[in-house]
Predict the 3D structure of the following.
Amino acid sequence: MKTDVKFVVMGDSAAYGTGDVTKADRPLGWTYRLAEAIEAPLTYLNLARPGAKSTELVEFQLPLAAQFKPDVAVVVVGGNDMLRNNFCPHRLKTNMVEILSRLHELGAQVITLQLHDPSKILKLPKPLESALMKRVDSVNRVYEELSESFPLISLKAREIDGVNERKNWHVDMLHPGPQGHQLLAKAAIQELSRRGIAVKDIAVSEIPELSKWEKTQWMLTKGTPWFFKRAFDLLPVALFLILREMLISLVHRFGTYRVTLGSYGTDREEEFKSIESR
């Protein structure tokens, strides 16, 4: 007789637990906090990996998750797809459909997490912010479309109270901090409770803010190496997004053109309608 709940986590750094680190320097994360709140014997398996894209989930994480035969599955992916030069929303959706179809066949209750609004947290040049938000919105649209086809618990980060407060974010301002992970876990707990699943509520604990020295130390030991490691991939994308946004602005200003965007993964034509001059 089956007595334990099998809880699997698939995804990237947001699912892995980056930003929610214990004294042993081991990421805890909102998914672990959620699993702890389920009032039943439980086996927890976290397959997530920082930097993972949706294709990796299909090729490597999904087969392992299927062998585990989960009752509950958390799937968080899209942020790294979005930040790559070959980003394609259609590919993301295709990969997600394969993942969700398999998990649905296994009878798992699936929880997903949409992207937050980075413009509320990061100070970016306006052209880059505008272009980045378009990609964020395209990822979230994929999740909205998936919610219409699958019985998901779809957490919307933008709608979680306090999500944009800096105290809830890691020093890198890219990942939730300990309080942010608690907020995510609490939001998921509320959704499970609404569906009649026995879960314990959690309190969001105030975590002392890092000192300037601790922040500087983190930047020197972890932040700077990470930046240089990712710069070769992310900087060309950032430049492309800025130039693309400037081009769109000029086209809207001066006339109607048909522009083909192919070198960075957007292999379709977009028609930009002119704005009539006064």
Remarks:
- The first strand starts at residue 5 and ends at 11.
- Residues 212-272 form one domain.
- The chain has two domains: 5-194, 212-272.
